[in-house]
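Pinned message: reference record for Bifunctional chorismate mutase/prephenate dehydratase
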Amino acid sequence: MAELSELRQEIDRIDSEIFRLFDERARVAEGVAAYKREHGLRVFDPVRERAKVTDAADRAPQDLRTYAQVLMELLMEASRSRQHALLGDANDGRALALLDAARARTPEVFPASAHVVCQGVEGAYSQIAAERFFRRPKISYSPSFDGVFMTVEQGLADYGVLPLENSTAGSVNHVFDLMGEHSFYVVRTTRVKVDHNLLALPGATLEGIRDIYSHEQAINQCAEFLSGLPDVRVHVCENTAVAAKRVAESGRPDAAALSSRPCADLYGLAALRSNVQDRDNNYTRFACISKDLEVYPGADRSSLMIVLNHEPGALYKLLAKFYALDINLLKLESRPIPERDFEFMFYFDIECPAASPEFRSLLSTIGSLCQEFRYLGSYAEVV
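Predicted structure (tokens):
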């Protein structure tokens, strides 16, 4: 049996030959790109690629067929990306053109003041997020998340603020469902520390509370505390601030709200218990959305909405592209598409500078892997 050092030397020799052939293949691909440019052909040729992947499996030993297919798919992906870099493809480059136009017209500095719409009423966590985004926001309120989207979409406010996810309770599913129904772009995100307090009228006692009101996410985030109050009825309402306002206006000493400390001062309530969330490191991530795409300097995160082809390996091929381009995946969320049985919209947050060549390559080539693709913007996260 050969020594380990000898086997490794043989592998190094084979690898050297592989990379020599890889370079040779890339040079031939340049000729393919030139031919396609001359004859007005698109880079992506699905029939050709399927044939190549099938042929790779047929050429390999039975126990290596899957690996041969993966290898060929990676080679085809590298070749396609190379051709896009040399040639480009008008049909696949719409998102890239949108990015370039937005970067050219977006101011260098994010605005200090703007008209911003939030869901709920005064004291909502969305208001806190809006004041994190803007130093001097003019804030108006909508009773629903759908209303926030519509207000921005119709140009009745410059920006909207919406919750995306919570570190304890997870994604705000209703917001993600509405994303597929509206036209918008993400221009900033931030994380707000969430401390829930049980607020009631002055003089009320914990033992006398019979009804508690709050938003569904806040209720989920305080599940352990609420489980210790078996005789209390819990009611879902639109917003934690709405809950506090409702309790204040009710005049009932047996009603309480799970809400923020600022809402106690705002609505004249007292805190029966403070910080009743299950976890102390409880954060909600908010997005600032706009009608038109704005990409400010320093944007290093992007959001995408994608419907994949309903076929084996579709998600793998997309994830492989992120891996090949060294793009970090921050979030992957799937939501069912209404009236389309067992089909899903995938929401991606990725970490990659909007000005980088890797991100440009992604935008110019991702369309070939998807049934539908929406670029939702590039942005920075405010700390």
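Pinned by admin. Summary line: The first helix runs from residue 4 to 39.
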